Amino acid sequence: MRFSQYKLAKLFATTAVGVFALVGCRKEDMSDQPKFYKPYKETAIFADGTSARPLPPGTVARGHLRLEEDLYTGKVGGKEIDYFPIPIAEADLQRGQQKFMIYCSLCHGAKGDGQGMIVKRGFVQPPSFVRLDNPPTDPAQRERNDRVRTSPVGHYYDVITNGYGAMFSHNDRVSVEDRWRIAAYIRALQLSQDAGSAPAAAAAETVAPTAQANASGPETNVQNVDKNR
Ligand code: HEC
Q1: Residue 105 domain-assigned?
Q2: Which atom of ligand 1 is nearest to the CA of 100?
């Protein structure tokens, strides 16, 4: 008697396992319904066939609303600006110098005269940022140097951001603020190497309104910082 009870229980257990196994293998509709949890999974629900919905036009990622055109592009209405959209104090110039030495001097030279080490080793020579004691004899080259030297600071920002001709863009390694600090340092280089000359007076005029626009005291004036050194 005990034996047959055991047998019955065994039979029941085997059957139960078999039934559960069969149920587990049955094709359920729910396991096959469209799911959106995988990015870009295809779907028949939307006409374009993808579950990823396009962003509404004009969507801006959080923290990426770049309303200040001058700060982010160096231009206003397509025209390069000649003021600094961030306050420039002595610490900013020092950081600008540091970044210039790291990212620009290898080609543009520590003085900004276009005689960097890479140029000495054969890379295309960039124009000089500063007035040279021995300007190039070629008039086209001289003109180019003059144009770059007297460019508005927004131009320097734009070149760092987007590159220019043979020069690649630095926007992936130099932050927006640091680009302005480098631009300010280029102005400081020009002023210090131009001291007392007519171009220096002209450059000083372009820098001075910036300080007034920033209205945060005399430290924001590149020219004053330079004098204070
Ligand atoms: C790998 C070398 C290299 C590096 C690094 C480099 N430049 Fe240049 N840069 C050049 C060359 C070459 C040109 C000339 C490009 C041309 O005219 O095709 C140039 C041109 C320029 C110009 C003048 C553009 C014009 O209007 O003609 C500016 C301004 C400038 N660079 C700024 C910078 C600043 C600021 C940095 C650092 C953030 C920098 N560059 C880093 C090689 C370099």
Answers
A1: yes
A2: 37
Q: How many domains does the chain have?
A: 1
Looking from the CA of residue 116, the nearest atom of ligand 1 is: 2
182 contacts 100 by C-beta, under 8 angstroms: yes
* CA angle 157–162–166, rounded 5-degree value: 110
Distance from the alpha carbon of residue 125 to the mean position of ligand 1, in angstroms? 9
Kindly report the pTM of this predicted structure.
Answer: 0.71
CA of 126 to the centre of ligand 1 (A): 6
Name the residue with the closest Cα to ligand 1, atom 6.
104
pLDDT tens digits for range 134-187: 999 999 999 999 999 999 999 999 999 999 999 999 999 999 999 999 999 999
User: Would residue 211 count as lying in a domain?
Assistant: yes
Any domain includes 67: no
